[in-house]
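It is worth pausing here to work through a concrete case rather than discussing structure prediction in the abstract. The textbook approach is simple: state the sequence, then state the predicted structure, then interpret. We follow exactly that order.
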Amino acid sequence: MNLDELKKGWGVLNERLSQNEVISQRIIKEMILRKTNAAYDSIYRASKWSLMVIFLLGGLLLPFAKMQGMPIYRETFIAMETFIFLGFLFEGYMFYLLSRFNLNTMKVDEAMRSMLKYKKMYINNQRCAKYGALLIIIVCMGLQNAFTPLVIALTILFTLIAFFLGYTQDKRLRQSLQEIEDGLRELKEYE
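Step two, the predicted structure:
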């Protein structure tokens, strides 16, 4: 073998190596994108379900119960509907923020800002919803003059169930948010 053949063979091997690096980086980037999009889809579905539940509860179920003669005082009904409507608006805005998130069309920095804005709104929503719901329950019980042992026991039971479900949902969504943030940081390296 002479020197020219060695150089030519070396060049071919070098070219194959650089092609393999490009392919490997593309595969890694696609894996990160899939993982990040899966975490996003989880949050998006949860937000859509929350929006539907709030609409069904406040927009359909409570007014239907009132029309059917459920003994709800007008002030209690207004307080509950107002709280539910505000929750619907807040959740609707959060859903809007999520619907704009698209890793295929957004730059990573833009996606990071979008997720940061959603995360801040999510944390504020968790604070407001927990304490607001507890406050509205107490106010409505006072307006209804419903401080009987049975009503208090049922209220405590349903409140504990709601807080437990909220806690598990919150834990899962925070994990998904963390996966998205981690994925965006990793994608930043490939941009």
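Step three, interpretation. The mean pLDDT is 83. Residues 3-190 form one domain.
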